[in-house]
Design goal:
Layout (H helix, E strand, L loop, with lengths): L3 E4 L2 E4 L5 E6 L19 H13 L2 E6 L9 H11 L2 E3 L1 E3 L17 H14 L14 E5 L9 H14 L3 E4 L6 H11 L6 E3 L8 H9 L3 E4 L13 H10 L6 E3 L20 H14 L2 H16 L3
Parallel strand pairs: 3-4, 4-5, 6-7, 7-8, 8-9, 9-10, 10-11
Antiparallel strand pairs: 1-2
Helix pairs in contact: 1-2, 3-4, 8-9
Bound molecules: zinc ion.
Length: about 300
């Protein structure tokens, strides 16, 4: 039996996902937050325009990393997926506390309550979609702080239990890869299989020795500073990516754009937009690596395989 991925429009075979941005944000509702700078993505027609352009260049899917309570709206995700023809994979889980309205329920939950919350979303659908036609999450997003001590360990443990029960992949936001070793030890101790964890934003810590070690241990490494000049991608990310490919580890990396900031879109700003994933990143990989198999792995094959469940 072939493996499937849960999209906002239902389950599809993994080979239908195509080119897939492994970590992005397609919708973030405006909320009353303590942090005024939290991103908002709510101009639906413009979002659709960027998605249509992405599909026209060969884009297949987008992984949406905004969990419930932090501005996710599954109903809008369904609308923009239908309108654009791009597959969208939504998530349950939790983000950094600063992205939630004050007093949001998840921050008061103990482990059992959080497990129930995640599993209810996985089994009954995203909370905001249950009245109409439920949408099911395709993975679990979590966010850790700079240190284990600064991180919500109960929610992390609950995410592990929900992943174990459902088989769903965990995408873990890291603070530029800080103390990632401690978080991996935490999950290893609980019994999470390494191939169930994606380590996000790890290219902000471009230590190739560490990356080789993590890749060999079975983790999927997510790179997304291509369009962030302050991280000097030409000096850090691109050479790191070449090193990993040359070390035969192209199966352990997924590339992404993480365009939570609307100014980085085509339709809402002057950025590379969703098409930058193909026009800029894929084109450079095509010429740098000149290997269709490797480029396909990095551009979607690897994340698709990890998202797939029986
Ligand atoms: Zn993100």
């Amino acid at each position: 039996m072939s493996k499937k991925v849960k999209t906002v429009l239902g389950e599809i075979e993994i080979n239908k996902l195509g080119i897939t941005d492994a970590h992005n944000h397609l919708w973030i509702s405006k909320q009353a937050l303590e942090v005024a700078a939290a991103p908002v993505l709510d101009q639906r027609d413009k979002i659709v325009n960027d998605l249509v352009a992405y599909r026209q260049l060969g884009g297949g899917s987008q992984v949406d990393c905004q969990p419930g309570g932090a501005g996710r709206d599954g109903n809008h995700l369904r609308f923009i997926s239908k309108a654009s023809g791009v597959h969208v994979i939504a998530c349950t889980g939790f983000h950094l506390k600063s992205y939630y309205p004050v007093g949001y329920k998840i921050w008061k939950m103990d482990i059992d309550q959080a497990v129930k919350y995640f599993l209810d979303e996985i089994q009954e659908g995203l909370e905001e979609t249950r009245l109409d036609k439920p949408i099911f999450p395709g993975f679990i997003k979590i966010a850790v702080g700079e240190t284990l001590r600064d991180s919500p360990q109960d929610l992390m443990e609950a995410a592990f239990i929900a992943s174990k029960e459902s088989g769903l992949l965990i995408e873990m936001h890291t603070e530029k890869g800080a103390n990632v070793e401690d978080f991996l030890t935490f999950f290893e101790y609980l019994g999470l299989e390494n191939n169930r964890l994606v380590i996000c934003h790890i290219d902000k810590r471009p230590d190739s020795g560490l990356h080789i070690e993590l890749a060999k241990a079975g983790y999927l490494l997510e790179y997304d500073t291509f369009f962030r000049p302050k991280y000097q991608p030409d000096v850090n990310l691109w050479p790191l990516l070449s090193k990993m490919v040359n070390a035969g580890l192209s199966k352990s990396i997924a590339v992404a754009t993480d365009l939570a900031d609307s100014t980085m879109w085509n339709s809402m700003g002057k950025g590379p937009g969703l098409v930058g994933f193909i026009e800029i990143i894929k084109n450079k990989m095509d010429s740098d690596f000149n290997d269709q198999v490797i480029v396909d792995q990095l551009m979607g094959g690897n994340i698709s395989n990890r998202l797939a469940v029986d």
